[in-house]
Amino acid sequence: MARYTGPKSKIARKFGEPIFGPDKVLSKKNYPPGQHGNSRRRKTSEYGIQLREKQRAKYTYGVLEKQFRLTFDRAARSRGITGEVLLQLLESRLDNVVFRLGIAPTRAAARQLVTHRHIVVNGKVLNIPSYTVKPGEAVGVREKSKSMEVVTNALAGFNHSKYPWLEWDKGTVTGKMLHVPERVDIPENIKEQLIVELYSKQ
User: Fold this and answer.
1) Residues 6 or more apart from 108 whose CB is under 8 A from it?
2) How many structural domains does the chain have?
3) 135 lies in which domain range?
4) Both 82 and 120 in a single domain?
5) pLDDT tens digits in sequence order for the chain, 202 residues long
6) pTM recorded for the entire structure
7) Is the dihedral of CA 108, 150, 130, 183 positive or negative?
8) Residue 69 and residue 74: Cα distance in Å, rounded?
9) Are 118 and 46 in the same domain?
């Protein structure tokens, strides 16, 4: 299954934020990688700024180019503001919902839990990370996987009230998607309009 497997700290330093999760290297070297990373850089072009924003979104949600483009095309065909719909579709991915519910510490870990068949949707095992979770659907941990260390550690002390579009049942280790998240409910530092402008030129 296609996914980014390159150096994550290098990418985090490029954007100046821990987009893959906590990063010790970023805290020590909070400047871009490379020989001239700590020196003044040339002004980035408008296209460069737009491309950078698309890359930020792709790396943040762990989506490669082809799948990201398909998601954008789907957003463009949908009702509503294209940029916001794009983020809503990315947030509704099963691996992201698993991450937002606190079942996994990172999206990469959430993706692995899904592909290894530890996650259930409405009681049925589902191993497709890109599956779009719909309002009303319940996402939980498979019964025999509830005692896994990665799951128990991630859930320990996790604040389930910070995402109003999700509901959590501690007893059953299951969350429910109440509604599609509004833009204000999505904490990612992504300027989605720049992505729309980039694709409009292609």
Assistant:
1) 3, 20, 21, 62
2) 2
3) 93-179
4) no
5) 455 556 665 565 565 666 655 655 545 655 555 555 555 566 779 999 999 999 999 999 999 999 999 999 999 999 999 999 999 999 999 999 999 999 999 999 999 999 999 999 999 999 999 999 999 999 999 999 999 999 999 999 899 999 999 999 999 999 999 999 999 999 999 999 999 999 998 7
6) 0.81
7) negative
8) 9
9) no
